[in-house]
């Protein structure tokens, strides 16, 4: 019987210490596509202090469609290490840190979880997904892609869709959004650190955790 992998939960917090990370891949399918670049920036007291970045040889041809998006070619990755060689170093880099990234809940983290399973490793890091954060605090925007948020804050988007450049953009966007939301009162779940939101149920209003069903904490209004 397979042992269930331990993963973290999504937070809705503005924190001062974290690792912002981004992947480039051969496509959008977690099951069929491969990671071709991993980058991360470690942030302490809101300031970048260390970088991790590497191309990854997927062991297969990179589709033209992927190259058109991120500019990464077969030639660029031919001498790069494979994922199982790179992943332990990445997991060591993020150990014990809150992760920050854009659309990481649905995309980047799913690739990392799947790869970590091959090494029988857990990825227990809690994380902040800036896509959800942007939808909440930048409601005036029609779209909430990383480039849209960067444009709003007048952050340089040159080199977008390369992992390290996206990390740099995302870190700046996170800090800007954090400043906007800092004065807002956010109810925090005492069990998992996620956000509590007011809901209506059969027996009246209550506060429920946004990480439901992974966290089932509730409290009365």
From TrEMBL:
A Pfam family per the record: RNase_T
Superkingdom of source: Bacteria
SMART domains for the chain: EXOIII (SM00479)
Example of a GO MF term: 3'-5' exonuclease activity
GO cellular component terms, semicolon-separated: chromosome; cytosol
Residue span, Exonuclease domain: 17-183
Entry annotated with the keyword Nuclease: yes
The protein's name: DNA polymerase III subunit epsilon
GO biological process, one term: DNA topological change
Classification of source organism: Bacteria, Bacillati, Bacillota, Clostridia, Lachnospirales
UniProt KW keywords: Exonuclease, Hydrolase, Nuclease
InterPro entries to which the protein is assigned, alphabetical: DnaQ (IPR006054), Ribonucl_H (IPR013520), RNaseH-like_sf (IPR012337), RNaseH_sf (IPR036397), Topo_IA_Znf (IPR013498)
């Amino acid at each position: 019987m397979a042992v269930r992998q331990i993963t973290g939960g999504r937070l809705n917090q503005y924190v001062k210490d974290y690792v912002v990370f981004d992947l480039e891949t051969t496509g959008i399918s977690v099951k069929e596509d491969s990671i071709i670049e991993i980058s991360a920036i470690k942030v302490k007291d809101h300031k970048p202090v260390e970088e991790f970045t590497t191309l990854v040889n997927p062991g297969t041809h990179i589709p033209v469609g992927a190259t058109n998006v991120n500019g990464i070619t077969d030639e660029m990755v031919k001498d790069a290490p494979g994922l199982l060689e790179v992943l332990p170093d990445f997991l060591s880099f993020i150990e014990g840190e809150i992760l920050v990234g854009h659309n990481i809940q649905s995309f980047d983290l799913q690739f990392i979880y799947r790869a970590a399973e091959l090494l029988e490793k857990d990825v227990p890091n809690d994380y902040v997904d800036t896509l959800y954060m942007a939808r909440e605090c930048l409601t005036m925007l029609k779209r909430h892609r990383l480039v849209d948020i960067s444009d709003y804050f007048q952050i340089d988007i040159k080199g977008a869709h390369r992992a390290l450049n996206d990390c740099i953009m995302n870190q700046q966007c996170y800090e800007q959004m954090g400043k906007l939301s800092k004065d807002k009162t956010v109810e925090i779940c005492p069990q998992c650190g996620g956000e509590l939101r007011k809901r209506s149920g059969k027996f009246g209003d209550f506060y429920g955790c946004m990480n439901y069903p992974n966290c089932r904490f509730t409290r009365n209004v």
